[in-house]
Design a protein that fits this description.
The chain has 321 residues and is an alpha/beta fold. The chain folds into two domains: 13-205, Collagenase (Catalytic Domain) (3-Layer(aba) Sandwich); 218-317, Immunoglobulins (Immunoglobulin-like, Sandwich). 14% of the residues lie in helices and 32% in strands. The protein has four helices and 22 strands. Strands 3, 4, 5, 6, 7 and 8 form a six-stranded mixed sheet that branches. Strands 13, 14, 17, 21 and 22 form a five-stranded mixed sheet that branches. Helix 1 (50-65) crosses helix 2 (143-154). The longest helix has 16 residues, at 50-65. It is globular. It starts with 15 loop residues before the first strand and ends with a strand. The chain binds zinc ion (ZN). Zinc ion binds at residues 3, 5, 149, 153, 159, 184.
C-alpha cells in the first residue's frame, strides 16, 4: 500500500525535502504562527464511527504537538460535513469517496500555499473511504498511524527513507521495519506499529518549527556526496547516534550533491550513505530521473562528532555497484 500526497498550487511537494531544505530555497512549506485549526469529517464508516475517527485523529495531532523541541500546535474546531478535498480555506480531515489516485492509496494530503512565500494556509487530509479502516488495532488500516503520517505532510514534511521493505511475490512492497513515521509505505492492515514518531520525525518538525532551545541544543552534519569526482544526487545520508541509537536522515540534492542532516543532539555519529532503492524514487523526488541509485552503501571514513549549535563537515565518496 502506498501513501501519497498532492499539493494544490504551483510548487510540487515532492520538491521539498524535510528539515527546511527545498530544491527552490524560497519554497520552504511552513505554517505561520499560532495554532493550526482543523475540522473533522462527520461520516460514520463500517467499523469506524465519526467519533472514533475524531479521537484517533486527535491522538495523532497530539503526538506531533508533544514533540518538546517543536512549536507546532493544533486546535480541533469540531465536526464538519464539508469534503476534505475542497479548497474552502478550511483545514479538514475526513473520509473521501472519490479518489482520482491509484486505488492502493490510503490517504492524501493537499496543501494550499501562498504564492511565493511557501506559507501554508490550508491543508486537507482525505482518507480513502473504500479502504477498510480501524481505530482499535483490529483488522483494517489504522486511522491513527495513517493520520500521523499525513499530519507530517500537513506540517510541510516530505517523505523520509528510513525504513526497510521487501518485495511481495504478488507485487508491491511490504514494510519490515520503519524508523520514521514519514516513510512512504504503510505497515500492513491490522498493524499499529506506525503510531509513534521517531527521532527523524522529531528532527524534521523541530527544524521547521523550532523552539529556541532546539536551535541551541542541536547541531548538524553537512557535506557532499561524490562518485569518482562527480556529484551524486538523491543519495540517502543517515546519521546514526551511537549513544541513543537513533537515526536521522536526509538526501543529497542540487548540482553539487550537497546534504545537510540537521536537528542532531550532540554526540558521536556513524554516517551512512545508501542508494534510494528501498522505495520508488518518485515517492521522494519530483524529478526522480536525476536520482542516482548506482552506488554501493558506504560510510564516512571516521566517526563524526556533532556539537551543539555547530555544523560538522563530512564529505562522502561512494563507488558504483
Ligand atoms: Zn506520504
Amino acid at each position: 500500500m502506498v501513501l501519497a500526497f498532492v499539493l494544490a498550487g504551483a510548487s510540487p511537494l515532492e520538491a521539498y525535502l524535510k528539515l527546511g531544505f527545498a530544491q527552490d530555497p524560497d519554497q520552504v512549506l511552513r505554517w505561520g504562527g499560532g495554532p493550526i485549526r482543523y475540522f473533522v469529517g462527520d461520516r460514520d464508516l463500517p467499523g469506524v464511527s465519526g467519533e472514533a475517527f475524531r479521537q484517533a485523529v486527535g491522538r495523532a495531532f497530539a503526538s506531533w504537538e508533544a514533540v518538546p523541541t517543536a512549536t507546532a500546535t493544533f486546535t480541533e474546531v469540531g465536526f464538519t460535513g464539508l469534503s476534505p478535498l475542497s479548497e474552502d480555506g478550511v483545514t479538514t480531515v475526513g473520509f473521501e469517496d472519490v479518489f482520482d489516485f491509484d486505488d492502493r492509496v490510503l490517504a492524501v494530503t493537499s496543501l494550499l500555499t501562498r504564492t511565493g512565500s511557501g506559507e501554508i494556509i490550508e491543508a486537507d487530509i482525505a482518507f480513502n473511504a473504500a479502504v477498510a479502516w480501524s481505530t482499535d488495532g483490529q483488522s483494517g488500516f489504522d486511522v491513527e498511524a495513517i493520520a500521523l503520517h499525513e499530519i507530517g505532510h500537513l506540517l510541510g514534511l516530505g517523505h523520509s527513507a528510513i525504513g526497510e521493505t521487501e518485495l511481495r511475490p504478488t507485487g508491491g512492497r511490504r514494510v519490515i521495519a520503519s524508523g520514521t513515521a514519514m516513510f512512504p509505505i504503510a505497515f500492513s492492515s491490522g498493524s499499529i506499529e506506525g503510531r509513534r514518531l521517531h527521532a527523524d520525525d522529531r528532527a524534521g518538525v523541530s527544524d521547521l518549527y523550532p523552539t529556541p532551545e532546539f536551535q541551541q541544543a542541536t547541531g548538524s552534519i553537512s557535506g557532499r556526496v561524490q562518485k569518482g569526482g562527480a556529484s551524486v544526487v538523491g543519495a540517502h545520508v543517515v546519521a546514526f547516534n551511537m549513544q541513543t541509537e537513533t537515526l536521522v536522515g536526509n538526501f543529497s540534492i542540487g548540482s553539487e550533491g550537497r546534504f545537510v542532516v540537521a536537528g542532531l543532539p550532540p554526540g558521536p555519529y556513524l554516517l551512512r550513505v545508501e542508494p534510494l532503492d528501498d522505495a520508488d524514487p518518485d515517492s521522494f523526488f519530483q524529478d526522480s530521473d536525476t536520482v542516482d541509485v548506482d552506488f554501493r552503501v558506504g560510510f564516512a571514513s571516521q566517526i563524526v562528532t556533532v556539537r551543539a549549535g555547530a555544523d560538522a563537515v563530512a564529505d562522502l565518496e561512494v563507488v558504483s555497484k
